[in-house]
Amino acid sequence: MATLDDVREIALALPRTTEHLIRDHTKFRVGRLVYASVSADEERIGFGFPKEERVALVASDPEKFMMPLRRDERYNWIRARLRSQYLGASQSVFALGFSIGPVIGVLGWHLLGRQVWWWCGVAVVIGLVTAWYGMRPARDELPSPAVPG
Fold it and tell me: pLDDT at position 17, please?
C-alpha cells in the first residue's frame, strides 16, 4: 500500500519538482504542470496518463483505477486508489474484534471456566483452515501441466 510519504519521496527526487497544498490535495508539479495529486485522506492519487489508454487501464483493474472526474476528462489524467478495499475490510473486522473480543472472552470465562482455552484453540484451528482456503490460488491461476510434445 502506497502512502503520501512514498509518493513524496519519489516525486521530490525528480528534477524541478515542487510540492503544493491546493484545496486539501497535495500536488506535485514542474512549473505549472501538475503531474500527481494525492487526496487529503490519502485514499486516492491522480496522475498524468494518456487519454487514449485510460479505458484500457481502468478495465484491466477496476478495483484500483478510476476514470478522472468529469472536470478533468479533458486532461491526460487518471485516478487510482492508494488503499485497497481489502485493507479497509480487514481494518473494520479488526476494529470489531478489538471492541467485542474482550466482552466475549469474559463471558466465555464465566460460562466455561478453564475450558474456554480449549474452545479458543478450536477457534484458532478453524480460522487457520479458512484463511488457508481463502488464500489459495483460484483454479484458473494454477499453472497448467506440461503436455509432452
Answer: 94
Total count of domains within the chain:
2
The residue range of the domain holding 92 is 85-138
Give the span between the Cα atoms of 75 and 49, in whole angstroms. Answer: 9
Domain annotation covers residue 62: yes
Residue 143 included in any domain: no
- Tens-place pLDDT, residues 18-69: 999 998 999 999 999 999 999 998 889 999 999 999 999 999 888 889 999 8
Cα within 13 Å of Cα(139), Cβ side: 0
- Of 65, 81, 97, which residue is a domain's last? 81
Together in a domain, 96 and 58: no
Is the distance from CB of 83 to CB of 2 less than 8 angstroms?
A: no
Cα–chain center distance at 120: 30
Query: How does 56-85 read in b/e, with b if 16+ C-beta sit within 10 Å?
Result: ebbeeeeeebbebeeeeeeeebbbbbbeee
138: cell is 483460484
pTM, two decimals, is: 0.54
